[in-house]
Design goal:
A seven-stranded mixed beta sheet has the order 5-4-1-6-11-8-12, with helices on both faces. Helix content is about 30%, strand content about 25%. The protein contains seven helices and 13 strands. It is an alpha/beta fold. α3 crosses α6.
Length: about 250
């Protein structure tokens, strides 16, 4: 595998196995990653986005309605990216599904959320991570509870707290949805049972080994009805503008 310090972007690992309970009926029979946005499945947009960045390897961590996702890939292709997948047969949590994917993980990879569009360039983040000399790196946005409640405290270029569920106004930063990790870090997770990403990040945070890479371009998410509607409107506006340019 090509190291992240090289020009080519890292392997991307996508967490896309959640039940999507916040989406209600929208995701009862359709996995979130296949919800349509502007006439295209979100997964098609995610693959195209990473293909434009030069990503060549992508792993999907699947669970809920995984068979639909696999059928979609068979029919519609993978935008030229080599895609592998694992499917959890019981709820394993965000880090548990990553542990299940261990046989497919590159030595270094970018972990992204399957319900988020994160425009920040992976290659730039990778170079910044390697420049930090730290074991892992989290992209963070100075959010001040604008998009979603903050969950990250940052000091001297490092994540000092990662803590979801705190009252608004607690943290200025939010996890952007891209974390750069080494396979060896995942290997330290317990061998079985559900595990959350907070458990994966906690030792890195306590040791001061999780770099905070600040980005300025907002992310978009389809994990909530309001976020889904907002991203759909954004895509419609972008594509309408593109049509006018080429008219």
């Amino acid at each position: 595998m090509t190291p992240l310090g090289a020009a080519r972007p890292p392997q991307v690992v996508v967490l896309a196995g959640g039940l999507g309970t916040r989406m209600g009926a929208l995701s009862a029979h359709t996995p979130k990653v296949l919800l349509p946005v502007g006439g295209r499945a979100f997964l098609a947009r995610l693959l195209a986005h990473h293909a434009r960045q030069g990503v060549r390897e992508l792993h999907l961590c699947l669970g809920h309605l995984a068979d639909q996702v696999l059928r979609f890939l068979d029919v519609h292709g993978t935008a030229g990216i080599h895609v592998t997948s694992t499917v959890e047969t019981e709820p394993l949590g965000t880090a548990g599904s990553l542990r299940l994917a261990l046989p497919y993980l590159a030595d270094e990879f970018a972990l992204v959320m399957g319900d988020s569009h994160t425009p920040a360039p992976l290659t730039d983040l990778a170079h910044r991570w390697h420049g930090s000399g730290l074991d892992a790196a989290m992209a963070v946005l100075r959010n001040h509870d604008w998009l979603v409640p903050g969950n990250v405290a940052v000091q001297d270029g490092r994540v000092t707290t990662y803590d979801k569920g705190r009252p608004p106004g607690t943290y200025a930063y939010v996890d952007y949805g891209i974390t750069l990790l080494r396979r060896a870090t995942v290997e330290h997770l317990p061998d079985s049972g559900p595990a959350d990403l907070a458990e994966l990040y906690a030792p890195l945070v306590s040791a001061g080994r999780l770099a905070a890479l600040e980005v300025t371009e907002r992310f978009w998410e389809i994990g909530s009805p309001s976020g889904y509607a907002e991203f759909a409107a954004h895509v419609a506006a972008q594509e309408a503008g593109s049509d006018r340019v080429h008219a």
